[in-house]
Specification:
The structure holds two protein chains of two kinds.
Chain A (H helix, E strand, L loop, with lengths): L1 H35 L20 H11 L10 H20 L6 E4 L2 E4 L8 H22 L3 H32 L4 H7 L3 E2 L3 E2 L2 H4 L1 H14 L23 H26 L12 H27 L7 H30 L1
Helix pairs in contact in A: 1-9, 2-9, 3-4, 3-9, 4-5, 5-8, 5-11, 8-9, 8-11, 9-10
Chain B lengths: L14 H4 L2 H26 L29 E2 L14 H5 L5 E7 L7 E9 L8 H5 L5 E2 L16 E2 L1 H5 L4
Antiparallel strand pairs in B: 1-4, 2-3, 3-5
The chains are: A mainly alpha, B alpha+beta.
Chain lengths: 346, 172
């Protein structure tokens, strides 16, 4: 009974983490781009004259999206038109469950795990549901009865499938080093130190894989410079026929996908919930774990957000070239080198 | 003139550029520099310390718009030293106006040195394209476009038509 309640609490935390951060990211996106471009950014939404540097804008956005007309084109396939955003959002919310927000702590004589879904194959689970998310995109493009939507869906299929393959190939190398597919054990495997001071984080063990992972992760979550399924200047993309909260769900699932990618990156490359030279135990240790994981995830999100506001969009052929001809071979070479290196080092 | 061919050499792209990574890092350097400098300036200003503004934004409806010195804004009819309008109702501005937004009716002037004067002078600002031809055409320098007024919205098309007294009102 306690176990069930604790699981519910963890799921609630995962959902709050994903959706709360997604709403917050809407604000971050506006403000970070504004500050980087010498602008001020959205600052007009106010409650009783309080503006709070534009923090009310996500709320205003939400109210607007919910109260907007939910339009379904006459040529759209109705049930699937409604299913697509749910599939998209559902898949990436499910990914959140397997992220190790914290390790295990002993409080009140019991051992509590801070990972909502403890699985021996957590990584496969996350990658599988990230890959399933592409169905929402393709479905949205296919059933909206619009050629632009279809084009966006096609691009989404080509791009996301290509980079899901890359993701698996890239992550093979660090997971080989950690010797597990369990995300919790992957974090524990990064707990050591080299020479007594440098933590054995994935980013130091596998720098190439980290860079490749950021590229593939950005592409898999369709962020600029790889936001071709949207391509709002050319085709608007797979959600062209969506309005109101259905469109909002696509936007949120984009952000949540981004959070999942960054959370997974923090888990596998930045030492997860661990804090170097600090032993985490008890209730405060648990809180510190949660905070450490959140900070690392946010740091990666910040970096990717800055990339998003720095680079222009790739062309379709460039994008697929980069994926199939550069990232995938490099990832496989990195994997081979890792295996050989580990064998020679033995 | 004979056609000439000027060969334009494309910048050579080596492995460094082709790999994107170095160039991406350089681009990130630029945006990160702007981000952190602006953030620091915003924070210093919030703390009440004197610092450069972190943004170049003009909060327009709250702060007045900054117009260029040569900006063409709402028309202004100029006066003689005695206060009467300079316009001699020659209709040159009405003739040259590409948007046909000027309507002048002329009348006899009581001043024997002046042949005509404008009885009415209406400009339909809803039609005006702010090209400035009327200013160029005027032989007596009676019309300028320097009232520095750009907020000209009205609730009806009729309200967009400005008559002579309104046009002679100085906002400067």
């Amino acid at each position: 009974m306690i176990l069930l309640a604790w699981t519910a609490v963890k799921v609630g935390y995962a959902l709050a983490f994903g959706l709360g951060l997604a709403g917050f990211l809407g604000w971050v996106e506006r403000k970070q781009s504004a500050v980087a471009q010498d602008r001020i950014g959205a600052n007009r939404a106010q409650i009783f004259g309080w503006r709070l540097i534009g923090l009310f804008h996500p709320i205003a956005d939400g109210i607007k999206l919910i109260t907007k007309e939910d339009f379904v084109p006459a040529r759209a396939l109705r049930p699937f038109h409604a299913l697509a955003p749910a599939l998209s959002l559902g898949c990436c919310l499910l990914c959140l469950a397997a992220l190790p927000f914290g390790g295990t702590v002993e409080v009140f004589g019991r051992v509590w795990s801070l990972q909502p879904f403890e699985s021996r194959v957590g990584l496969v689970y996350v990658l599988a549901f990230l890959a399933l998310g592409v169905h929402g995109v393709v479905m949205a493009g296919y059933v909206s009865g619009s050629n632009y939507g279809l084009l966006g869906g096609l691009r989404g299929a080509a791009q996301m499938v290509a980079y899901e393959v890359c993701m698996a190939a890239i992550l093979a190398a660090p997971m080989f080093l950690y010797g597990t597919l369990d995300l919790q054990e992957a974090v524990l495997a990064q707990g050591g130190y080299w020479g007594g001071w440098l933590p054995t984080w994935g980013v130091f063990r596998q720098p190439l894989a980290f860079v490749l992972y950021l590229v593939a992760g950005t592409a898999a979550s369709k962020r600029i410079p790889f936001d071709l399924p949207e391509g709002e200047a050319e085709i608007v993309g797979y959600h062209v026929e969506y309005s109101g909260m259905k469109f909002g769900m696509f936007m949120i699932s984009d952000f949540v996908e981004n959070i999942v990618v960054c959370g997974l990156g923090a888990t596998l490359f930045l030492g997860g919930w661990g804090i170097p030279f600090v032993s985490l135990a008890g209730a405060w240790g648990g809180l510190l774990m949660l905070a450490s994981f959140a900070v690392k995830t946010c740091a990666l999100l910040f970096l990717l957000m800055q990339v998003r506001w720095t680079l222009p969009r790739f062309r379709v052929d460039q994008l697929l070239d980069l994926g199939w001809k550069s990232v995938l071979p490099l990832a496989l070479l990195n994997f081979l080198a890792t295996v050989w290196g580990a064998w020679l080092w033995r | 003139m004979a056609m000439t061919v000027r060969p334009v050499s494309r910048p050579r792209r080596g492995l460094l550029e082709q790999s994107y990574l170095w160039e991406v890092a350089r681009g990130l350097g630029v945006t990160f520099r702007h981000f952190f400098i602006n953030l620091a300036r915003h924070c210093l200003r919030l703390a009440g310390l004197r610092a450069e503004p972190g943004a170049v934004t003009i909060q327009y409806p709250d702060e007045p718009a900054v117009l260029g010195r040569r900006a063409r804004t709402r028309h202004r009819l100029l006066r003689r030293p005695d206060g009467s309008p300079r316009c001699t109702a020659c209709l040159l501005c009405e003739t040259i106006c590409p948007a046909r937004c000027i309507r002048i009716t002329a009348e006899e002037s009581p001043d024997p040195a002046v042949e005509k004067r404008a009885k009415t002078f209406d400009i339909d600002l809803g039609m005006c394209v702010f090209c400035g031809h009327c200013v160029e055409a005027c032989p007596v320098d009676a019309i300028h476009m320097d009232a520095d007024q750009v907020e000209l919205a009205a609730y009806s098309r009729g309200d967009m038509i400005w008559d002579m007294p309104a046009l002679m009102r100085d906002t400067k």
